[in-house]
Design brief:
Elements lengths: L2 E2 L2 E2 L2 H7 L8 E6 L9 E6 L4 E6 L5 E7 L2 E2 L30 E4 L8 E3 L2 E3 L11 E10 L2 E13 L5 E11 L4 E10 L5 E2 L3 E6 L9 E4 L1 E5 L2 H4 L18 E7 L6 E8 L2 H4 L2 E8 L5 E9 L2 E9 L6 H6 L5 E2 L4 E11 L2 H11 L15
Antiparallel strand pairs: 1-2, 3-4, 4-5, 5-6, 6-7, 8-16, 9-10, 11-12, 12-13, 13-14, 14-25, 15-24, 16-23, 17-20, 18-19, 19-22, 20-21, 21-25, 22-23
Length: 371
């Protein structure tokens, strides 16, 4: 039953008190009308309990804005939620339309730093987040006394003589819930094997992220490059944003629980005069067996990226050279499950902290090639 306003409600009780369905939580389809967002459609989710988020069907059903009781959960870059027509695939051109938001999908056939792989120039983080979805379905459905809100569709990354990968995605939540559920399937519809790199770029920002925040994670950790290695001991803590601070990236081997799920959480117990606010990322480790932490403390670009993935972020050429590049066989399909959960107060924060940080391994100081 939905838990709203401190009470559990049956479907019949809610329908007695409310008129339109969106009065107590709904998903509605809207459209931006100016700026680089002009023409971009958006599915606006309202879980009825303070959790709201926007899903962009023109951008691979990625999650843009997200908030809880008016407080933003994610980082928004200066670019805005630009229409995919503005996408620049060359080099780091991806950043010109990288809104960040709560989720930017990177992949499907490559992700990470720009590189040249077997004579093919590859831009930053792949194409998928700039490809519109097809076969869209969205709505609300009651399952007993549970009201589910959802949107689903297919996104195809393909070109002639190249990959033909299909992402089938469903984003959902429930009225009264604090959790966003991302269920993906990636299928190779070519008759040859295809490289497959998948990274969930989850971008947490102010006010969840502040100098009072900490990262809760149970992992072995190492740095991507020498500058990141200089901050390895403080990878779980954050400072006040300042100009000209370079980004740092850390790789984690996160310990999974008995059900095969790994998780990490950004916690801010000082938020709102000590009420607390946090976000937990939980994912199935079997498929997403790597995890990257993006720590960017630069003024105006203050963000902590928590990124479940099946690759590193240093380019497809490096993965191929080191024999770690993932492939999908012809007709092969791979499933992924990621959950993003709001921790609304310090009670929830302490529960998650005690669950995740039971025993923290000693960091492994390894260094990888700079991005």
């Amino acid at each position: 039953m939905p838990n709203l306003y401190g009470k559990s409600w049956t479907r019949k009780q809610i329908q007695k008190y409310a008129g339109a369905s969106w009065q107590t939580g709904a998903v509605r389809k809207l459209r931006f009308a100016e700026g680089p967002e002009d023409g971009t459609e958006v599915f606006q989710f309202d879980a009825g309990n303070g959790l709201q988020f926007n899903v962009l069907p023109h951008r691979a059903l990625d999650i843009a804005g997200a908030s809880f009781c008016g407080a933003s959960l994610c980082y928004h870059s200066h670019t805005g939620e630009a229409h995919p027509a503005y996408y620049d695939p060359q080099g780091i051109g991806f950043l010109k339309t990288f809104n960040a938001g709560l989720l930017t999908t990177c992949g499907l056939s490559w992700a990470g730093a720009p590189c040249e792989d077997e004579g093919q120039p590859l831009g930053l983080h792949g194409r998928i987040s700039h490809i519109p979805a097809r076969q869209l379905k969205y709505g609300e459905e009651w399952v007993g006394n549970t009201k589910r809100l959802f949107v689903s569709g297919e996104v195809r990354e393909s070109h002639l003589f190249g990959p033909n990968l299909v992402l089938s995605r469903t984003i959902s939540t429930e009225v009264g819930s604090h959790t966003i559920r991302i269920e993906d399937k990636v299928r190779n519809e070519n008759f040859e094997k295809s490289p497959h790199m998948m990274l969930y770029h989850i971008n947490l920002g102010f006010p969840v992220l502040s100098e009072n925040s900490e990262l809760a994670i149970n992992s072995n950790v190492w740095a991507r490059d020498p500058f990141s290695a200089s901050g390895l001991d403080d990878h779980r803590r954050f400072t006040t944003p300042a100009p000209n601070i370079a980004e740092q990236v850390f790789y984690h081997d996160v310990k999974a629980d008995s059900k095969g799920f790994a998780s990490a959480a950004l916690l801010n117990p000082s938020f709102n005069q000590g009420q607390g606010l946090g976000v937990q990322v939980r994912y199935r480790k079997k498929e997403l067996f790597r995890f990257a932490q993006w720590k960017n403390q630069r003024a105006g670009m203050f963000v902590c990226g928590l990124e479940p993935c099946n690759c590193r972020v240093q380019g497809r050429d490096l993965e191929r050279q080191e024999g770690t590049l993932e492939f999908l066989k012809p007709g092969e399909e791979r499933s992924y499950l990621v959950e993003i959960r709001v921790l609304p107060d310090n009670n929830a924060i302490e529960e998650v902290r005690s669950t995740i940080v039971a025993k923290r391994p000693t960091p492994k100081k390894r260094v990888r090639r700079k991005k």
